[in-house]
Amino acid sequence: MKSVMVYCEVENQKVADISQELLSAGKRLAQKLGCPLEAMIFGSSLNGIENQIAPFGVDRLFVGNSMRLEPYRTLPHAALASKILKEEDPQIVLFGATSVGRDLAPRLASVLNCGLTADCTILDIGDHLVKKEKKEYKDLLYAIRPAFGGSIMANIINWDMHPQMATVREGVMKKEIFDEHYATEIVEVDVNAVLKEEDFVVKIIDRQIKESGVNLKDAPIIVAGGYGVGSRENFDLLVELAQLLGGEVGGSRAAVDAGFIEHNRQIGQTGTTVRPKLYIAAGISGAIQHTAGMQDASMIISINNDPDAPINKIADYVIHGDLGVVVPKMIKFYKQNAK
Ligand code: FAD
What we know:
It comes from Lutibacter maritimus. Helix content is 27%, strand content 27%.
C-alpha cells in the first residue's frame, strides 16, 4: 500500500520543528490519498521519542536508535533511509530544506533514481494528463515553489519516477496536532545489521554550535523595516518599537543588502518565513519574495509614504506617511497609553 514518509531530524532527544511541520503537511497529503503516514528517525537515546511524533497522526515510525547515529553524518543516515525506502516503497517522501535535508535528500534521490523538488512552499495532490502519452496520471504530488526569482509559482509534477520527493523550508507549513493519543506502530530498525564500518569513515572531531539569539519564527509580534527606513541608525526606531511591544525586529532583503540590519533577520523567500499575530511593515514595498515569507501574519500594518505600495493590498491597516514621523508617534502614544 502506498504511503507518505517523512524523514524526521532529532538532536538531544528533541524532534526538530521542521520535522513536526512536515508531519502535519504529510498527514494532509496522506488523508487526500487515503494512505498511511510513516516517519523515520535516526539518533541516540530515542526511547519515548514517539511522544513527539505520534500526535501528528503517524501510523508507523521507523526508529534507528544508536549512539553512532548522532550527531548526523551523511553515510549512516543515507544507508538506513535508503534501506527503509526500498523496502517500504512510499509514494511520497518529505525532508526539511535544512542543512541535513539538503545533504541527505539528493543522495537518496540519486540512489533511488527518482528526482527531487527542493524548497517547496505548497504541497498538494492532483492528477496530470501527459498529452504525448494521452494518459492521465492520478494522485501525484504537486510540489509547488517560487521560480524565476519568485515571479511565478511553478508546480513541479513527477509522474514517471518513484517515489516523489520534496524538501520544504522551515516555517512554511503549519504544525498541527492531529490527535494527542494517536496510536503509532513503532518499528525498531536493526542498525547494526544495516550499517558497515565504511559508513563511519567521517569522524566528527569537534562541533561548535552558535545560537543566533534571533527567533523570528516564534515571535508573536514583528516590526520589520525595508529599504525605506533609510539607514542603520533609523532602524533603532524600529528596535525601540519592537522592544516596547515585546516583539522582534526583521527586515527585507533590500534592508539587509544595504547593511541596515543583519542577514539572520531577513524575512521572505530567501530568509525566514514568519506567522506572527502582528506584523508591522515599515518602508517595505511588498515584493512577492518578501510577502511569501509574511503574508500569513494574523494582522499586517503597513507604514509607507506611497499609497500604492503593493504591501498595502495585503495589509489590514495602512498608515500613509513618512515612517520617520509615524514610528516615533507610535512609540510615544504606546508609552502614554500602555498600562
Ligand atoms: P523597496 O522595494 O525599495 O521599497 C521601499 C519602500 O519604502 C517603498 O514602498 C517606499 O515607498 C517606502 N518608503 C521609502 N521611504 C519611506 C519613508 N520615509 N517612509 C515610509 N515609507 C517609505 N526580498 C525580501 O524581502 N526577502 C527575501 O527573502 C527576498 N528574496 C529574494 C529572492 C530572489 C531570488 C530575488 C530575485 C529577490 C528577493 N528579494 C527578497 C528582493 C525583493 O525582490 C525586493 O527587492 C525587496 O523585498 C525590496 O525590499 P524593500 O521593500 O525593503 O525595498
